[in-house]
Amino acid sequence: MTDFATHTVKTAPEASQAILQGVEKNYGFVPNLLGTMAEAPALLEAYTTMAGIFNKTALSETERQIILMTNNRLNGCTYCMAAHTTISKGAGVPQDVIDALRAGTPLADTKLEALRQFAIVVNQSRGWPSETDIAAFLSAGYTQQSVLEVVLGTAFKVLSNYTNHIASTEVDAAFAANTWSEDAVAAA
Question: What is the pTM of this model?
Answer without folding.
Answer: 0.94
